[in-house]
Design goal:
Length: 434
């Protein structure tokens, strides 16, 4: 869901509150005259170099607005999802927080916990709204109301270890179809190489396989009908076929030992340590595999290649149909005008260009992608630019209750514990209950 940024198991210490801007030394009179506004920003970011960029942005804003102090509050990803609903209804709610858009954001908006940003976005001839890519803004807008400020866009693709591919005699450019991919898995196994780093402990990393196979087998029309509970819904033959192909992959035992218990950081570490040849991951995989590798460095940048999820022969889905994130900052009811003003600053083309240059994001701000220097990130941005259908992560788009079932079913089918048809039926039943 990118979505799913770095995920880890909940820990007891949920908050690591980092105060970025330090108060200036006002005299007694100045302190009394100028009340300080604290802006609370809740995030799931774990890469130290990325946090440093944010700290610099917050410090620059504070220098121009001495009466505003920005606090970064961190919640681990799994804890974030577990605690956020309660937090949003409490006095401890942040001013704004990381959002994956989709059905989860829609549900949060329906609780009354979020601010409708539409009028602020449309003020002054809509200059604020026009500073973002239209697709980014549309994905965070429901029934004409915008509930989050666009931040980043992303796409999931295959990353591979060039040395291991070379050792097995494989060329990534030859992987055009799903059958080619299965053949690649077999070739790697024959060469004594673990084909894929898989993370089943948190389930969502494996739902990418099912999602992409649904997209390739059914195309947008089939998924949109299933989402609306029309026609055969999730029992569409193309969706059942996707599950059968997922089961076929599972039978090859392509993942590292113990993959069903592996967290996402551990999975990135398996790839970063060179213990598996392939990873299906986010646009920022290069930085994240390095951080989670045993030596803290991981694979060298020039040893990592990238290729899109292949097509399924006979399926209407195109190789240019992409699955990925659309992330924003959802603004709570309690957020101050200062929080809104800081958000405008944080997501402006100028600041997003800085984040792009640091290899953090594919920006949602118009024109900011020209800051991208990292070749793999640039490839992801180019892939998004040429996308014929960009689909938000299924578990986010379908909402929390159906999303959980999608993640469960993906793992069960892959591990041979459930048939494709039974899995489709479970998702269909969950959809019907909504």
């Amino acid at each position: 869901m990118t979505h799913h940024q770095e995920k880890a198991r909940p820990r007891a210490e949920l908050f690591a509150c980092l105060t970025i801007a330090t108060s200036l030394a006002f005299g007694a009179f100045a302190t009394a005259a100028r009340a300080e506004t604290v802006v609370k920003w809740m995030h799931v970011e774990t890469v130290p170099s990325n946090l440093k960029v944010w700290e610099e942005i917050a410090a620059a804003y504070h220098a121009a607005h001495p009466d505003v102090r920005v606090e970064l509050q961190f919640l681990e990803n799994e804890a974030f999802k577990a605690k956020l609903p309660t937090l949003l209804q409490s006095d401890a709610a942040p001013d704004f927080f990381y959002s994956w858009g989709g059905g989860v954001l829609r549900q949060q908006s329906q609780t009354g916990a979020l601010q409708d940003l539409s009028s602020a976005m449309k003020a002054d001839g809509g200059t604020w709204a026009k500073s973002y890519k239209p697709a980014a803004l549309d994905g965070l807008t429901f029934d004409g109301k915008t509930y989050a400020v666009p931040y980043r866009m992303g796409t999931v693709a295959f990353f591979y270890n060039k040395q291991l591919f070379q050792k097995a005699g494989i060329k990534a450019e030859d992987i055009k179809t799903w059958n080619d991919f299965l053949k690649t898995v077999k070739t790697l196994k024959d060469a004594g190489i673990t084909p894929i780093a898989g993370g089943g402990g948190e389930k969502w990393p494996l739902h990418f396989y099912w999602s992409y196979l649904v997209m390739r087998n059914g195309g947008q029309a089939v998924f949109d009908k299933a989402k609306k509970n029309e026609g055969d819904g999730f029992l569409d033959p193309a969706i059942i076929k996707a599950g059968e192909q997922l089961a076929e992959l599972g039978k090859l035992q392509p993942f590292q030992g113990g993959y069903l218990g592996a967290t996402w950081p551990q999975t990135l570490g398996v790839f970063g340590d060179g213990k598996a040849a392939i990873l299906l991951g986010f646009e920022n995989t290069e930085a994240n595999q390095a951080k989670n590798a045993g030596d803290g460095k991981g694979l060298a940048a020039d040893n990592i290649g990238r290729f899109p999820f292949p097509v399924v022969e006979g399926g209407p889905g195109k190789v240019t149909d992409t699955l990925g994130g659309l992330n924003g900052w959802a603004v709570t009811k309690k957020a101050s005008p200062a929080a809104i003003d800081f958000l405008k600053y944080l997501t402006s083309p100028e600041q997003e260009r800085k984040m792009a240059a640091a290899g953090m994001i594919i920006p949602a701000a118009l024109g900011a992608e020209d800051g991208l220097k990292n070749p793999l990130m640039r490839q992801a941005a180019d892939q998004l630019a040429g996308s014929t259908w960009h689909q938000n992560f299924f578990d986010q788009d379908l909402g929390p209750s159906v999303g959980r079932v999608v993640n469960d079913v993906s793992v069960e089918i892959l591990s041979g514990q459930m048939s494709a048809k039974d899995g489709a039926q479970m998702i269909q039943d969950a959809r019907a209950l909504e």
